[in-house]
Amino acid sequence: MTRSDTTDAKTRLLDAAEHLFTEHGFAATSLRKITTEAGVPLAMVSYHFGSKKGLMEAVYARALGQRDTSRVGYLDRLEAQAGGAPVPVDVLVEAFISSALRLTRKGTISGAVFKQMIGRAFYEPEAGVEDFFPTEYAEAVERYKCAFMRALPALSEADVVWRMYFFVGMVAYAMAGKDVMRMTEIYALEEAGCPEAMLRRLMPFIVAGFNAPSADVSPAAGALAVALGT
């Protein structure tokens, strides 16, 4: 097999894995299914990616694109523009949301497919992929955590991490289009099918949440709330 043949095999594997992971989920997609659809030997997976997890990482990385257009690359530019000052909370929130929206418009993968892949990866944990945590995602979370801590010096690290947990969860929920509460159907919200409109509505809510004072989560506060019936 020539070098061009192996390069073509790698692309076919990525295309097949992207399609099958999205269509059937990670656990239900065997390497044999992927190699059969790609029309390449099973050994090509190990040659190019090392393992199924490595192939999953590569599919995710290809969807995200180059660093200079990634969430981390976007934050790099914002911090450079700030010249050493903290990047404001509203700018950080908009940057993260804008990066998420950009992913739904990728030329290499359709918005609908990417949303389905996000939904399966984060809302349908399956056997064999529990430890799947994309490198770019882990780096982005850490970098944004540090940026939010600089912008919100009155908050503890735990406060910032919890708020990021809620923030990222809501963004993933909106992108994945999994309205388990059916509220958008009950109230016939016309923008429910448009991630961009949903996330734009979400942004002021998220900014207000980050800027809210620290919550008292001590046992005494919880006991008082129960006593007051709140």
From TrEMBL:
Entry-linked InterPro entries: Homeodomain-like_sf (IPR009057), HTH-type_TetR-like_transc_reg (IPR050109), HTH_TetR (IPR001647), PsrA_TetR_C (IPR041586), Tet_transcr_reg_TetR-rel_C_sf (IPR036271)
> From the Swiss-Prot or TrEMBL record, what is one GO molecular function term?
DNA-binding transcription factor activity
Question: Which domain of life, per UniProt?
Answer: Bacteria
Record key words, sorted: DNA-binding
- Regions recorded as binding DNA: 30-49
- The signal sequence is none
Q: Which residues form the HTH tetR-type domain?
A: 7-67
Against PROSITE patterns, the record matches this protein to:
HTH_TETR_2
Listed name of the protein: TetR/AcrR family transcriptional regulator
